[in-house]
Amino acid sequence: MTMTTIGHGIMAPTTDIGKLFTVFFAFISIGTFLFVATNIINNYVQKTYDEFFVIKDLFKRGHKNHQKKKIRVIVEKE
After folding, report:
1. Which residues contact 3 (CB under 8 A, 6 or more apart)?
2. How far does Cα 35 stand from its chain's mean position?
């Protein structure tokens, strides 16, 4: 967020053109940051969402198959 610390510190725009440029620069940099952050978060959430349902489906399939299995025990007499 260093791009938006305008006028805080040693350097600050003094001319009208410099101030106008700084305002546009702040809007563009904030928009760019939000665009990148949104894409990163969206990719993370989508990956987590997909993995959750893959695991959920595997558990359901495994659970159903486990219930349907028949166990056959063979006892041999000596």
Report:
1. 25, 26, 29, 30, 33
2. 13
Predicted model pTM:
0.52
Query: Which residue reads 């595997």 in tokens?
Result: 58
Question: Which two structure tokens, joined as six digits, stand for 58?
Answer: 């595997």
For tokens 């997909």, name the residue.
50
AA identity, residue 14: T
1 CB contacts (<8 Å, ≥6 apart)? 33
Type of residue found at 51: E
| pLDDT score recorded for residue 77 | 72
Residues in the chain with pLDDT values less than 50: 1
What's the 3-state SS for 36-75? HHHHHHHHHHHHHHHHHHHHHHHHHHHHHHHHHCCCCCCC
